[in-house]
Design goal:
five-stranded mixed sheet, four-stranded antiparallel sheet, 14 helices, globular, disordered N terminus
Length: 323
Amino acid sequence: MNRRTFLGAAGTTITAPFVAGCTGSATRTITLDWAYYNPVSLVIREHGWLEEAFEADDVEVEWLLSLGSNEANEYSQSGEAEFASTAGIAALMARSNGVPIRTPYIYSKPEWTALVAKSDTGIESVADLGGTSVAATRGTDPYFFLLQALEEAGLSEDDAEVVHLQHPEGQSALVQGDVDAWAGLDPHMAELELEHDVDLFFRRPGFNTYGFLNVLEGFLEDHPEDVERVLETYERGRTWAIDNPEATAGILAAESELSGPVAERVFVDRTDLSNPVPGEEHRNLLTDLAPILQREGMVDEAVDLETSIDELIDAETAQPVIE
C-alpha cells in the first residue's frame, strides 16, 4: 500500500523503460498510459507487443502510469499521451469540456467500483451515509457511482462529506479510519475485500461505465495507420487475456503488488472483455448519466451533451481489426 501511495503522488512522471528498438534517434514518440484498472494495457506492456509492432519504424513507445481517469484525462488534455484509459463517464466529461478525444475501443466491461465501509461502522446501506465522510476521486467512475447511489437513496453530495483523494489514498484513509466509507476502485477495493474486515455494502454493476480507450482526435486524423496498429495490439492483448485468465491475473498481481487471489477476484470475477467495439449500449448509458455532469457543475450548462456523445463514440475505427 505504501508503494502505491507513492505512485499516487508521482504517477504523472513515471514511465516504463523503453523496450524493443527504442533509441534516442527515433523521429517521434507514441505515448500511452497503463493502469491497474486496464488489464489489457498490463498484458501489452508486459509482453512488449507495442514496441514490437513499431520496431521496424523509427518510432519510440513511451508508457505513463494512470492511477485514475482523472490522471488519464490530464494526459489527454495536456497532450502528454496520445492514448489514455478512462471510464466512460469520465471520457464524456473530458470531451464536453473541450478535450479533443475520441473512443475507438472498449478495453473492458468491469464491475470495478462499489461503496465500501469497515464492517464495524454500522454502515449497511447508502441511506446510512448521511452525515458521514466518504472518500472518492472526483472525475472518476467511483465518484459518479457514489453520486448515482446517493441520488437513488434520496440523498445528494451535500448530505455527506466527500473527501477527494486519489484511489490508493482513499483506500488507506478507510483502513486508517480517516473516513467512514470509500467509493472504491479495483484492484485496491478487492484487496480490502479479501484481506481486511470491510463490506462492499452497495454494489450495482449497471452504475459502472465501461473502460474507454481514448485517442487524441488530431492523432487519429494525422496518423490513422498508427492508431490501427495500436488497436491491433490491443486486440492481441485482449484475446490473449481471454485465453489466459490466470496468467493475466498474475501480471496484474505482479504490477500492483497484490496477492494472486486479489488479482483473480478483479480479473476473473469482475472483468468482461467480450465486446471491444463502442456502440449503442455505450451511447445509451452515457445519455442516461450525462445530466449528472451538468447538475454537478462539471461541464458548462450550455454544452450539448448529446453532441459530445456523438463526437466521442467512434464505432468505425476499430472494426477492421476486431477478431
